[in-house]
Amino acid sequence: MEMEKKNLAIIILAVVLAASGVGNIILGINQGFITLQPEAKESLIIGDLSGPVDLDPVDSWDQASWDVLRQCVEGLLFYNVSDEDLPLTPWLATGYTFVDTTHINFNLRTGVTFHDGTAFNADAVVWNFDRLLHFMNHTGTLPSGLSPAKIHSLFEFPDGSPIISSMDKTGEYSVQLVLNGPYTSILGLLAFAATNILSPTYHEAQGHLDAYIDTSADRVVGTGPYEYIEYVTDDYVKMVRYDDYWMEPVMFDELIFDVIDDSTTRNYAMLAGDIDYLFGSMSDLWDTFNASPWIHFEALERPNLGYQYLGMNNKQINVTWRKAISYAINYTYILDEMWLGAFVKSYGPISPGYAAYFDSNTVNIAPYFNLTIARQALIDDPGIDTTGLTASDDDEDPLWEAANLNSLNYSYNTDNWFRADLYVVLSEWLEDIGISLADGGTDWAYFLYRAYGYVPGGYDELQLYWVGWGPDYLDPMNMIQPLLSNNSVSNSAQVNDPWLESKIVDYYAEPSEAVRIQIIKDLSNYIAGTLYPHAFGYHSRTRAVHAADLYNVAYNVAGNFWAYPIKRNLTWTPS
């Protein structure tokens, strides 16, 4: 199948864009000079900014891959993203019972089949968990030529030992999960993509006990409402309706993730009606989307759970410099000038979207733009020669601008406008505290593989870098432990703090939710006012853009796309 990225309207727009600039096109649409009316379509087409990186559930760790996997494979538990509160819901399991703190019994759903016709049962569950433990090398059987699954640290205690001991069959439709010790976040972990259930029949025959699923060439066979067909690299992912799904089958014959990496082209594809649902909407077009009778624009007030921040290499940049940098950044400029007020200031990894786990007191503790505090931190450090410098708020102080106290590099991917533009202003802000900033801009792949730990030792190449993190599962500790624990492969800032590590251990062993909430709050205040591991950026708000004739669309602060409930009103006409 060959996917057309642009219809005639988009081609015309591209020509006009080249001649007149994006701003003129936006003005033309807003003023009604250009009208785009979508054609009727039978498929559900998603405009995505990138294709999946890894479609093996045990090795996937990027949003684009999860968005695809969520449609075709399922787990024992599921965060119901159609509910704003994201309740944890039994899914391929019908229920569970804690025998004690290390043994959990699950009753499994009957009458479920995989897309290849294989029956879902206890044997399938055990096979998948054995495979999970194998690829995390928790069994010690992983061949030397294979790297452990990227997500292995999520399934390990803070000391690096495995959380899961085994998944055992107790009946045709019942299993028991055995843990190596109490772990209060285990149910959330079971809703994570890595524990989704594949068909043993298909995947064992394809050799997927010895190798990961090949994203570019292989299939993913699960129990989900859509059956995976193919991924043409950097072009599209195609799925079709699974008619034997255990719930009501979906409305659409076909689900397409159309990969359009250029943001402008992708957004105008939405205006032209070439796609039904848009990932990565441009803020310049939000008013246009909202005004279009053919498009539904949804803006949630509750901040997303994701977190954007300036990473700082804690191994190379000490706490004095981290504090000074945190206070030297003009966050108001980032939020109001660069992002036009679209996002919410962050005070650490825990978003206000986490409700009870967010401590409003952190707002009073976290750094804000204050050159006097930034400069005083450097003056107070006897290891830094600040002779002749005084702590003032003058951002044009020639003595500070001429000072050569430190030099750092700023790493970013050049195809991201915000990260690229940030280099310019960040250079000016850090010059005000005696730091010269080197331009470390590179292509996306080079940056990705270092910022997310895919290259051994890659973190040592990073000093300052802008990056984001979203929760793998919805436990708030999943925003702290992966980013800040010295056991985590995602600890790009190379944080190594014994007190923080001790609180993580306490959290995972604590049965009381009230106590766990307080641990998160204590950690948030410590991170914000003492550790300064990152310069805290912002949390986004969900802004969903889709065709106005779609309904039952799931909006949620986790940013998780789920196609199953979506339907199209076939008699809809714009008002």
Quickly describe the structure.
The chain contains 18 helices and 21 strands. The protein has 575 residues and is of the alpha+beta class. The protein folds into three domains: 8-49 and 251-299 and 543-568, D-Maltodextrin-Binding Protein, domain 2, CATH 3.40.190.10; 57-225, Dipeptide-binding Protein, domain 1; 307-539, Dipeptide-binding Protein, Domain 3 (Dipeptide-binding Protein, domain 3).
Please tell me about this protein's structure:
The chain has 575 residues and is α+β, with helices and mostly antiparallel strands. The protein has three domains: 117 residues, Periplasmic binding protein-like II (D-Maltodextrin-Binding Protein, domain 2), CATH 3.40.190; 169 residues, Dipeptide-binding Protein, Domain 1 (Dipeptide-binding Protein, domain 1); 233 residues, Dipeptide-binding Protein, domain 3. 29% of the residues lie in helices and 20% in strands. It contains 18 helices and 21 strands. The strands form five sheets. Strands 8-9-10-1-11-19-12 form a seven-stranded mixed β-sheet, with helices on both faces. Helix 1 crosses helix 2, helix 9 packs antiparallel against helix 12 and helix 17 packs antiparallel against helix 18. It is globular.
